[in-house]
Design goal:
By secondary structure, the protein is of the alpha+beta class. Helix content is 17%, strand content 29%. It is built from 2 helices and 11 strands, in the order H-E-E-H-E-E-E-E-E-E-E-E-E. Strands 4, 6, 7, 9, 10 and 11 form a 6-stranded mixed β-sheet that branches. A 3-stranded antiparallel β-sheet has the order 3-5-8, with no helix packed on it.
């Protein structure tokens, strides 16, 4: 049973929380980019010419899977080209994160979605390369990467054959992991 005191306490707490959030939202923040690429947001004006920045909202990654659009013309299904089209992965692309995406609140874990023009066949797998380091190849178009922290990151997705030969690679995707650092 909820007592009158409990109800008043909840109303008071909620009002106080909303008031503090409004105060936080009206503060002016300044962006400082360090030499190592890390970004800091501060309430103290770093220089006379600095202007306040609007902080972006949360990044939302949709759980729905998207297939990469094919840019080539359809190839007729004749016996001579069926094997070629089933293993043509030249349209591979990284769907998420988006190019130049700023990811907030990831706690070091991100989801990578890869789009393919054709299904993987003949033992082919997708291998991600994060900041020049190859990750284990998987038969999946969705990857969860852990321990990806603050700063700029470069990502490439490649389709590799069963014997390790690279069949196709995506363009390099650059994204940023952002972490708030507020000083008062």
């Amino acid at each position: 049973m909820v007592t009158r005191f409990t109800a008043l306490f909840v109303i008071f707490s909620t009002t106080l929380l909303l008031a503090s959030m409004q105060s936080f939202a009206t503060e002016k923040y300044y962006k400082v980019v360090r030499a190592d690429g890390s970004v800091e947001y501060t309430m103290e004006k770093p220089s006379a010419e600095s202007k306040p920045v609007d902080l972006p909202g949360l990044s939302i990654i949709s759980p729905e899977r998207k297939q990469a659009p094919t840019t080539s013309q359809p190839v007729p299904n004749t016996e001579s080209n069926i094997a070629r089209t089933e293993t043509d992965y030249s349209g591979i692309q990284i769907i998420s994160p988006a190019e130049q995406d700023n990811l907030w609140g990831t706690e070091g874990t991100i989801t990578v979605e890869v789009g393919l023009p054709n299904k993987l066949s003949n033992g082919a797998k997708i291998q991600l390369s994060l900041d020049g380091k190859n990750l284990p190849a998987l038969e999946s178009t969705s990857f969860t990467l852990k321990d990806v922290y603050r700063g700029e990151h470069k990502l490439v997705a490649s389709v590799i054959s069963a014997n390790g030969k690279v069949l196709a690679s995506s363009p390099t995707r650059t994204f940023y992991i952002m972490m708030a650092n507020i000083r008062r």
